[in-house]
Amino acid sequence: MTNYDRTSTRPGDHYIASLNDGRKVWINDNPVEDVAVHPAFAGPVGVLKTFFNELHDPELKDKVGYVSPVTGEYVHKSFLVPQTKEQLLERKAAFEYWVDETDGLMSRLSESGRSIVTGWYASRAKLAAYDKEFERKITAYYEQARDEHRILVSVVADPQIDRSKEQTELSDPDLALRVVSENEEGIVIRGAKMLGTAAPYAHDILVLPEGRLQEGYEQYANLIIVAANSPGVEIVCRDSFALSPQEGPLSALYDEMDAAVVFDDVFVPWERVLFYRNPEGVYQAALHKKENSLMHHQSVIRLIAKYAFVTATGFSIAEAIGAERFLHVQEKLGELVVQLESLKALLVVAEIEAQPDEFGTWWPKALPLRVAIDAASRAYPRAIEILQLIGAGGFLQVPSADAWANDLLRERIGKYYRGARVDADTKVKLFRLAWDLIGSPAGSRQELYERFFSGDPVRNFAAQYLEYDKQPLLQKIQKRLNSR
Ligand SMILES: Cc1cc2nc3c(=O)[nH]c(=O)nc-3n(C[C@H](O)[C@H](O)[C@H](O)COP(=O)(O)OP(=O)(O)OC[C@H]3O[C@@H](n4cnc5c(N)ncnc54)[C@H](O)[C@@H]3O)c2cc1C
């Protein structure tokens, strides 16, 4: 579908060039001419470029990549369909390398969307039961995405207008994304999706409906892949939260842009319509199913790296100001350790209990991964609260970046801004770093992300109860009640 020039450049360089493709991205009230060079995207786009080029690095290519059976070139391991447990762990090692480099602060290093597609590809024979064309279409897309190093993001929720209403009850039919026409070539969709993180600099957008759709809602029950530069796609960004490296050392690098995506009568060829008016097919491919445990595996690996970074920040703050000697501070730091080690344990359980399916694909056990994601939706905000409780007002005793240039202020800072065991320069840098997790716009967004990235936590926790295999537990009670 695209004319990917394999000979010209390394994948990261090619990625940068590929973004100048006529896409329509808006930031503030301006269309963005070239997202690859716009300062609002410079951090994450630069990280992605570096990482993609590692597929050509003799030292790293075997860690992050494997050889495509079609092109003979290195492609990222998120596309690897694990045929053994060792391959599942190879995928993990590739993810770990990137999330350790970014301390888990970037959720869209491309492996998340790629793992969704890899899961569908690995389940193609099963999902073909809901549409016989599914297998052929997902195979073609998977191979193209893998061999052209495409970045995919997903968009699920319709705009947040009136959640008390079903799609069909909304005042304007365009408020829920739907199909407005079809012909022999494909379909035309109209509507908007509320949030697509990294959509401004992705190649393709996976468009899905939210929840399980019932009879009568077929027009919304589609699973579609839309090229980000398709005519009619408008990507509308929020404000940039990227600060200067001095002010926001994390947000300068890792402010992943969130954007609403408007589909203004966008034509999608049938090749990219994986399920059409097919509530059951869409539900079976939905993001919480076993077919997506490869994606959830990646999410938990990222969560662990991020939680470890926040934990390390907590330790560092406490020790910088001599607060680690207080019992309640030790208790809070211990809580961070307990949560971190619990997440790690859940990941290991999912890997130990991994099983091959009838097609030979090794899937990590889904339940511990879902438990880790749901647990972290509460543990991460609590970790941020712990940082606030330990650092307290110290987060605001931070001079502006240029205060150091003034002789008098520099002398005052050196004297009054130091910590128990660190000099003023180190303490100010540490507290700025921590502020970029707990108080800056990008830090607040990171917290909101962990609460919601996998859907509404209220409904996710309820689903844990509703979908849990309750019988073995209930039998215990029954046994007691039956005993005399
Ligand atoms: C930083 C960030 C990045 C994101 N990136 C992406 C992305 O890349 N792709 C993507 O698809 N999504 C993304 N999301 C969206 C995310 O999936 C949603 O925020 C999440 O699914 C919750 O939906 P909502 O925000 O529409 O909240 P709503 O569904 O509008 O919920 C608002 C409130 O109403 C309650 N509520 C609403 N409906 C019900 C109901 N039926 N039953 C019970 N309670 C209800 C909720 O519990 C909540 O308290 C992102 C979100 C954030 C915060």
From TrEMBL:
Residues 12-274 form the HpaB/PvcC/4-BUDH N-terminal domain. FAD binds at Q160, I161, D162, R163, T197, D456, P457, V458, R459. Keywords: FAD, Flavoprotein, Monooxygenase, Oxidoreductase. Gene3D superfamilies: 4-hydroxybutyryl-coa dehydratase, domain 1 (1.10.3140.10), Butyryl-CoA Dehydrogenase, subunit A, domain 2 (2.40.110.10), Butyryl-CoA Dehydrogenase, subunit A, domain 3 (1.20.140.10). One of its GO terms (molecular function) is oxidoreductase activity, acting on the CH-CH group of donors. InterPro entries: Acyl-CoA_Oxase/DH_mid-dom_sf, AcylCo_DH-like_C, AcylCoA_DH/oxidase_NM_dom_sf, HpaB/PvcC/4-BUDH, HpaB/PvcC/4-BUDH_C, HpaB/PvcC/4-BUDH_N. It comes from the Bacteria. Residues 293-479 form the HpaB/PvcC/4-BUDH C-terminal domain. Coiled coil: none annotated. SUPFAM superfamilies: Acyl-CoA dehydrogenase C-terminal domain-like (SSF47203), Acyl-CoA dehydrogenase NM domain-like (SSF56645). Pfam families: HpaB (PF03241), HpaB_N (PF11794). This is 4-hydroxyphenylacetate 3-monooxygenase oxygenase component. The lineage of its organism: Bacteria, Bacillati, Bacillota, Bacilli, Bacillales.
